[in-house]
Amino acid sequence: MEFHMKDEGVRINLDYGELDISGDEAYGFRPFQLMVASIAGCSASVFRKILKKQRTEIADMTIMANVERNPDEANRIERIDLHYVIKGYHLDDEKLYKNLAIARKNCSMVRSVEESITIEETLETIELSR
Fold first, then answer.
1. Is 63 among the domain residues?
2. What is the pLDDT of residues 83-106, one digit of tens each?
3. Distance CA 56, CA 96 (A)
4. Does residue 104 lie in a domain region?
């Protein structure tokens, strides 16, 4: 990966597109936002793959992230709570939590920070009828 300096941060060109990173939201994504997005995105994509393999019918999945930062330690991220809202058919909460635990073990981003950031995952299901 190659990053290029710009007036208010850095830029990287990736296959999908250009990404601007800056401590000031007016000039790009803030680093902590990218960290949280990486963790939530990885967790959700691994979880979704597991659900698809098991033929769990989901119509929609939303992940809400709540972040706690410590202003006394360079505003470091100390905790991320990921709350999954899953809409689907014939959902089994126990099975979903087991699958979420499997996803956690297979998410490289969660595994990379698990010793330094507390990550808590919760589920909420909304049963849809046909």
1. yes
2. 999 999 999 999 999 999 999 999
3. 9
4. yes
